[in-house]
Amino acid sequence: MCRNGIQQRKDSWQDGVSGTNCPIPAGWNWTYEFQVKDQIGSFFYFPSLSFQRAAGGYGGITINNRKIISLPFATPDGDITLFISDWFIKSHKELRQDIENGVSLRAPDSILFNGLGPYRYDNALVSGGIAYLSVNVEPGKTYRLRVHNVGVSTSLNFRIQNHNLLLVETEGSYTVQQNYTSLDIHVGQSYSFLVTLDQNASSDYYIVASPRFVNSSGWSKSVGVAVLHYSNSQGPASGPLPDPPNESDTFFSMSQARSIRWNVSASAARPNPQGSFRYGEITVTDVFVLHNRPAELIEGKRRTTLSGISYLAPSTPLKLAQQFNVPGVFKLDFPNKMMNRPAKVDTSIINGTYKAFVEIIFQNNDTTVQSYHLDGYAFFVVGMDYGLWTENSRSTYNKWDGVARCTTQVFPGAWTAILVFLDNDGIWNLRAQNLDSWYLGQETYISVVNPETTDKNDVPLPANVIYCGALSPLQKDQAHRVNFSGAPSLKKPIKLIFVAFVLALIGSFMR
């Protein structure tokens, strides 16, 4: 179970991805234990394997300021969490099979709010009897809406009929406060808005999430609609849905993204090194230009790549292999630029330098918007533009108040540049948030090792660790697990341990 944006300081054991944790067998349990020190903001969790996020299982994580640290805005009258997501009639297993067989995801069949909807705003498009989300509010009050795009692959435009959205936070960073009539929220991204209930209550109001950058004439059928219900409302929501952005305006969404700035004067937890530091004046020590491109056949299978490498998850997680010095599991040879060679499948990860200040450029050579996420860190989004990134592109960087976050969008035929300070020990996942790209191999990991072995703050191997792959003989059975018929038995590894012990004992007597 991955917690999107929770940094797990010096504790990648709790990160919940295949490079750090063994899968939890059916009927077993795993208790995550982690600190949220030096973080505030809006985050979410979800299952990280096998397209399971498409089947649900996600939820919100809200980290509030300590009481002694004031908010950079008046305390809201209420706090509401909204999950917006694309939805397909096919199950997550069928979707997974489709993309393996080369069938691209089409426009979603619907957009959901908190797993519900849509509201019956148009009888010709939405039949009756569908459960929808109704958000109950009091007139004249101001609410904080935390909105998360937990979908499969669709960017969504979020808006509320006749109401302004005052953006105040994204993924742990307070932003310069700006009003939007709508905002594009890309896969894996989270935003906080303040919404003041200043309209009359002649009716309810539409809350809308509609697909963006979907090349399909049927996209209008998949608009998600919920209801904002004033306590003194006199009738149902009515009239046309608030207009989405012009789909042909390719610069609207990028201009909007560039307008989101970091509130450098707010008192709150900040990216490490702690404090409001001038990141634009720090010397960059490593540069990685990561290229993606549409899925292609590699060794007869459909795969996606970063810089020509499609990640192959080993049976032994990287972090466990590193802890127990298991050879041959991974290679620290991920290239810092696109290599002139055929694409390949490999377990190649980035050899990060502890406390390096790294520049990463995501170059999107695909035809769809992609989102990229880095576990363990907040990074500064300093630039984005259409075309190919060059060293001259640095002249356009925002070197003062680029927002610090954990997920950034990269538009088709465009690039996005981030800066990140590698001070968090561990092995950290760098991935596409779009499930189709991620599932087919568009990810890698960054290994960050503190050379000062006397650092006692590093979190040790957890007592409840689950072993698999080459280390499966170390696994002990769980005494209180649920006995499903399909739950795999781990008695064989235990027998192997016993046999090895007996052989060692016989050997000692024969010496």
UniProtKB/TrEMBL annotation:
<dbReference type="Pfam" id="PF07731">
    <property type="entry name" value="Cu-oxidase_2"/>
</dbReference>
<dbReference type="InterPro" id="IPR011706">
    <property type="entry name" value="Cu-oxidase_C"/>
</dbReference>
<keyword id="KW-0325">Glycoprotein</keyword>
<dbReference type="GO" id="GO:0005507">
    <property type="term" value="F:copper ion binding"/>
</dbReference>
<dbReference type="InterPro" id="IPR001117">
    <property type="entry name" value="Cu-oxidase_2nd"/>
</dbReference>
<dbReference type="InterPro" id="IPR011707">
    <property type="entry name" value="Cu-oxidase-like_N"/>
</dbReference>
<comment type="similarity">
    <text>Belongs to the multicopper oxidase family.</text>
</comment>
<dbReference type="GO" id="GO:0016491">
    <property type="term" value="F:oxidoreductase activity"/>
</dbReference>
<dbReference type="InterPro" id="IPR045087">
    <property type="entry name" value="Cu-oxidase_fam"/>
</dbReference>
<dbReference type="InterPro" id="IPR008972">
    <property type="entry name" value="Cupredoxin"/>
</dbReference>
<feature type="domain" description="Plastocyanin-like">
    <location>
        <begin position="316"/>
        <end position="451"/>
    </location>
</feature>
<dbReference type="Pfam" id="PF07732">
    <property type="entry name" value="Cu-oxidase_3"/>
</dbReference>
<feature type="domain" description="Plastocyanin-like">
    <location>
        <begin position="4"/>
        <end position="67"/>
    </location>
</feature>
<protein>
    <submittedName>
        <fullName>Monocopper oxidase-like protein SKU5 isoform X2</fullName>
    </submittedName>
</protein>
<feature type="domain" description="Plastocyanin-like">
    <location>
        <begin position="79"/>
        <end position="233"/>
    </location>
</feature>
<dbReference type="Pfam" id="PF00394">
    <property type="entry name" value="Cu-oxidase"/>
</dbReference>
